[in-house]
Amino acid sequence: MEACVKWVDGAQFLAESGSGHSLVIDGPPEGGGRNMGMRPMELLLLGTAGCTAYDVVSILQKSRQAITDCRVEVKAERADEVPKVFTHIHLHYVVSGKGLAQATVERAIQLTSEKYCSASIMLAKAVEITHDYEIVEVA
Fold first, then answer.
1. Domain spans in the chain, listed from the N-terminal domain onward
2. Half-sphere exposure of 42 toward its Cβ, with a 13 Å CA cutoff?
3. Are 57 and 97 within 8 A, CB to CB?
4. Under DSSP, is residue 27 helix (H, G, I), strand (E, B) or coil?
5. 3-class DSSP assignment, residue 135
6. Which residues pair with 13 in a beta bridge?
7. Which of 126, 121, 125 is nearest to 48 (CA)?
């Protein structure tokens, strides 16, 4: 896996992935940025949420669950002092579908947390990560 981050101006950077996608990273005005893109720590959380959501959807589909939507809401706390590392991350899964089995949803979240999601498993070595979920029945 490869990627490149190139400085543009001020606190703005252009990030390019090895798969050919790009996005803007920027800081807040008080940090020299123009608020034109996401912050690096936000990207870390989004990457983690994307990784685990991908797993949960895949596991539920393979389990023949009638999943129609999956959302992972992330809340994180950071240290007050530099380096302002994450001290706690909470993942709240909102899984929607028709007749979803609670045990299967729980198992999918357990599998992503313990076996499949490289991002959350790596972060869990340094940060307390908790999770919960809700199942939304759709007609």
1. 1-38, 40-137
2. 10
3. no
4. coil
5. strand
6. 7, 25
7. 121
Give residue-wise pLDDT tens across range 57-72: 999 999 999 999 999 9
β-pair partners for 86: 78
Average pLDDT over residues 130-134: 98
φ and ψ at residue 112, rounded to 5 degrees: -65, -40
pLDDT (tens digit per residue) in 36-46 = 999 999 999 99
SS3 54: helix
- Give the CATH class of 40-137: alpha beta
Q: Count of CB atoms within 10 A of residue 46's CB?
A: 14
Query: Which fold does the domain 1-38 belong to in CATH?
Result: N-terminal domain of TfIIb (2.20.25)
Q: Which residues contact 89 (CB under 8 A, 6 or more apart)?
A: 45, 48, 74, 75, 76, 77, 120, 123, 127, 128, 129, 130
- CB contact at 8 A, 95 and 133: yes
Q: Is 44 exposed, middle or buried (0-12, 13-18, 19+ CB in 10 A)?
A: middle
